[in-house]
Amino acid sequence: MLSVTEALEEVSRHAFRLPTQECLAIEAMGMALAEDVISPVESPAFDKAMMDGFALIAADTDHGNVNLEIVEEITAGNTASEAIESGQAARIMTGAPLPPGADSVIMVEDTQIDSENVDRVQILQQVKRGSHVLKKGELLSKGQVVIPAGSIIRPVEVGILSDFTGAKALVHRRPTVAIISTGDELVGPNIEPGPGQIRNTNGPMLEAMAIEAGAVVKQLGIVRDNRDELSAAIAEGLEADVLLISGGMSVGVKDLGPSLLAEQGVEKIFHKVKLKPGKPLWFGKQGGTDNPTLVFGLPGNPASSLVCFHLFVRTALNELVGRSNVSPFVSGFLLTRDFVNPGNRPVFFPAFASRKEGGGATIAPLNWKGSADLATLAQANALACFEENSQYEAGQFVSAVMV
Ligand SMILES: Nc1nc2c(c(=O)[nH]1)N[C@H]1C(S)=C(S)[C@@H](COP(=O)(O)OP(=O)(O)OC[C@H]3O[C@@H](n4cnc5c(N)ncnc54)[C@H](O)[C@@H]3O)O[C@H]1N2
Ligand code: MOO
Hints:
One of its GO terms (molecular function) is molybdopterin molybdotransferase activity. The protein has helices at about 5-15, 155-165, 200-210, 225-235, 255-265, 300-320, and strands at about 20-25, 35-40, 50, 55, 65-75, 90, 105, 110, 120-125, 135, 145, 170, 175-180, 185, 200, 215-225, 240-245, 265-270, 280-285, 295-300, 330-335, 340, 345-355, 360-365, 380-385, 390, 395-400. It is an alpha+beta fold.
């Protein structure tokens, strides 16, 4: 049986980048840039005033208090009509280009104008050369990489892309994810479960997780444990980039998943991973490098499906869109209580992580009742990672997967 690390490596190895497409930056939020964003110009494009005040020549103020002639007023979006010379100043607003000749700006608060003589300004202090001026090219030079490929598009990137690429972004297209929920016992959200029946929680939950991860979802609904029905659904699901099949992955008499996938030419890469919950995870691939489909058979138990999604499906989706090197693990959580994992599999245990006063973070394992317990996961924001056959003491550091 593979370890979690080995299984994650296999998933990454088989997930190829999807083709790229150009789209509006705002619609690419959360996606990864597929190319470097390069500044085509210097920024700022001109020496820029950073305060409302007066543009002047700093050397004129070397002896402190000085009275200068105001030659014009420059507002943002306009340029000076003439250069200033020694003894002169231009009224200037934040964001406006400095007039030629000027090298500094003094804030209006540090000046005085005599109401009898409004064409002159009294400079009340010595001005340091370059004060309140953002020099041309100081932020970015022409050809500089502003955002490297692989960066996630967040609001700040949307702002920068609006500056340099016409608000467009080149990204790997969103993955399509098809979802099948198998099981004779399953009913939809508005149907009263009969004896032995349960509601399909995995289907909608997996859909929500896939959307959150940036995918476009095709929900194929509940499929009975019947060879023909499941075969047809699998064939449809294999048109997507990723197919998720919930349930039927273990060794029960109706666990048809693995054999039907093999019949449809899906190559098994691994079946079973050493973790709890989620051991029966199945992973395979159909097709070569050209438009392959990655197939995950997720264990039917809801918590097992959720944990496998966060660890393995998310890793695949990240690889497909170029969000590389995003580890599911965050380290350095201080355990709030003793914890024993007597089992022979590492456990990913629902827990609540919070900020610690004075820095750092703590993690409190919840009172989780096992793979069928989704309700406790609703109180969790993390899965604390505990090694197999292990004992932990309060105050020890553990890593976690954020959920
Ligand atoms: N003899 C063995 N039995 C089991 C093993 C094993 O190694 N040997 N593994 C156990 C583990 S661990 C898990 S996890 C489950 C997973 O089994 P399956 O993937 O085959 O899932 P099912 O049997 O179809 O369902 C398990 C459980 O989950 C409920 N379920 C299924 N689908 C949904 C859904 N869409 N929404 C909500 N709940 C769902 C289902 O009713 C079952 O209660 O196998 C163990 N058995
Ligand atoms: O691995 Mo199963 O997912 O323990 O319940």
